[in-house]
Amino acid sequence: MRREPPRTLADYLPLFFPAGMLTIFFVVPFGTMIAVSFFQRQQGGFYTPAFVYDNYARFLSAFFGGVLGFSLMLAITVALCCVVLALPFTYLLTRMSRRVQVVWLVALLSVLSLSEVIIGFAWSTLFSRTAGITNILVALGLMGEAKALTPSFAAVLTGMVYQAFPYTVLVLFPALVRLDPTLTEAARTLGASPLRAFFTVVVPALRNTITATLIMVFIFALGSYLLPQLLGRPQHWTLSVLITDQAIYQSNMPFAAAMAVFLVLVTLGLVALTVLAGRRGEAA
Amino acid sequence: MRSRRSPSPPQGFSTSWYGEIFLNPEWRSALFASVTLALLSAALAVAIALPLAWFLWRRVAPWANIFQLLGVAPFTLPPVITALGLLTFWATAGFYGQPWTAVVSHAIFFVTLPLVTLSLGFTSIDRSLVEAASTMGADDRTIFRTIVLPLILPYIVSGYAFAFVLSLNEYIVAYMTVGFTMETLPIKIFNALRYGYTPTMASVTVLFVVTAAVIFSLVARFGDLPKLLGAMSSDGK
Amino acid sequence: MSGLALQNVVKEFGSFRAVNDVDLTVPHGTFVCMLGPSGCGKTTLLRMIAGLDLPTSGAIGLDGEDITRVPTHKRNLGMVFQSLALFPHLTVGENIAYPLRIRGAPKEDQRKRVDELLSMIHLSGYADRPVSKLSGGQRQRVAIARALAISPKLFLLDEPLSALDAKLREAMQVELRQLQQKLGITTIVVTHDQREAMTMADTVVVMNGGEIRQAASPIEIYRRPADSFVADFIGQTNLVEAETDRSGRVTVFGQPVPGLDLPAGAAKAMLSIRPEDVHLTAPGAGALTGTVTFVRDLGGTIETFVDVAGRQIVAVSTPRARPEVTVGQQVGIGLTPDVCVVLAK
Prior knowledge:
The complex is a heterotrimer of chains A (284), B (237) and C (345). Chain A has 284 residues and is mainly α. Helices cover 74% and strands 1% of the residues of chain A. Chain A has a single domain, classed as MetI-like fold, CATH 1.10.3720. Chain A has a two-stranded antiparallel sheet. In chain A, helix 8 (181-189) packs across helix 9. Chain A is globular and about 70 Å long. Chain B contains 12 helices and no strands. The two termini of chain B are 32 Å apart. The interface between A and B is large, with 72 and 84 residues.
């Protein structure tokens, strides 16, 4: 097929609807949000147009700095845990038969698509005193008496890793499927054990993929807003929770918008930094 | 599976809690709202993604990739950002709280999924098939109808299915745009959580898991799931 | 004028000239094979004839009509692609009927024509099979039948047999040639396999570097190659240099070859000597003397490699005329003017 640049109006026609929809309902809202972040809050109502930096100045405080720091730390921890768990898992998955792969992929997609509400509900049940896993430990005689494991940081982390794990596997899957299996076979014939072959051949070959995956999972984890609420204490709340809280319950849209803009900037900044570091590492 | 560990297990085994979802007017209307929202928003998402993906495949227009980027962005950024953007937008435009805004919001939020599956689908169409059709006398429109559409159909269905399932489960965008006027199932569950656990919630959870598993199994049965998820070869290697 | 005519056709991809100023006339009913190494521009030329690529400059005419800018779907072609490009979502019958269907032919006519074509390619009764269930050779035939469904003005094939194994490929070459002769259709095949070209073509067009090096009948191409590229590309050959010495005699490796004439005014020229024309004699009896370095006995033919003053000369003989030589032995090589083809460059 000869691919040509579009010339006539008819050639451009298919682009109109998608371009229009994405512009009106994504670009414009995004711009609106940025604009609102400079607006003045109106007590009891919404906001009035203005151009003030108050909303940005406000979270340059110790409290919001702490929340931001915690959010980033949580997202990084989740990303690391997920990649460490998902890399060997996905590697083994790609070496399985097609049928096994499909079953796992269906299961992973089902978990991935689950609402945070449901994941939070399920884990808070599992971690509860009355019906949680500690009851099983008690029944097995491993524990004295059942106790609640939530709310706690560990519970938040577990829930978020559970939520992000399928995502991590699905991000890693294409790269690992395409990894030439003769690479490890060659390493094996050269005398490497399967484990050594994995760490000396597969992991280095996938360095860029791993970096990219870490970033993707980091952003994914940064978006978690219900699990910290359902499984953690207020000090475990992330920036996402705070943004929702300000927007909906405190009706402070300008402040929420400013935080959202800041979150985007921090996210993009960290991604850029990681990519840059990756490039430098490669050049060296 | 998880429901059996429910904190307040019902006495004995009963399926009546499942009936509750359909009989209780509140749960029923939440179910209805969620399913309607998912059906419509997934359709709109496909309607946005299909012409875009086709255009990018058919034409040489590097600048148009900006729209591909825009299509992928809502799903890649933390959802709260897209949600807040849409909230400020609907509030400014004066449509805040109207049910149809949720359809548009979800369609934009999930357009990434059909866009990715369709882009993948188009790259998997051998361009020589299109050339062959044109040597046999088919013009662009005929080629689209007789060759491209039948070959891309499985990808349209998968893209729709992905968007549908995720829309059914989505909380924050729905909550921020229509949370005060409409109750979807996830919103209903979250609101109900404040008053303690009920077996109905557990049944709804199971219903969600089963729905997702069934839909993805169907996608796997009629499409090529490993390929859809980015594996190049279809022989499972 | 009936047939295909290419005039000064040029195709550039960016700064790369894929096809450089090609002129070619293909009379109606001719079978042409475009032959050359990969990247020589033969596929690009075919795609321009089909309208799948537009020439940067030049004109393409068919039956006296300028079709340079006519879109592909209005050219009434039949084309077989290297990948075959069978539609995976259609059955064998639906694939063959496709060009008829989109032209709005009545269902009954479509069915009749499909049956006709299926019997022509010896696949009667296969109409309802999915194409994925066919063997390589069967898929090949279906692609050919589909291309011929509308009785096209021009039948184009791009490396059509490259996916088949050697035996099947040779059988299909014969079949394709017989089919073309029966239908009398103007046919252009792109191939990199010179055996294929020799088997099928009325005219072989040898291309290299985007240019036509020679266009002639297979036997002429073999016997009278225009240049050293053609001589080397078609079959096996020995390329040796001939020069005129001070006394005006034409010599090869310093040995005079009486009766051999170089082009007027040329002091040097390349000679092509086919291996089957190289006759080994006793040392001293031939014009040249060399040492046997290797003997390759392929059963049907025997190739003897001889080192003459640092250059390798290959002689091919049949088992009956087997030369009694061993590696390391000195042999003579007879050179007569009739076996030496003087090349233009």
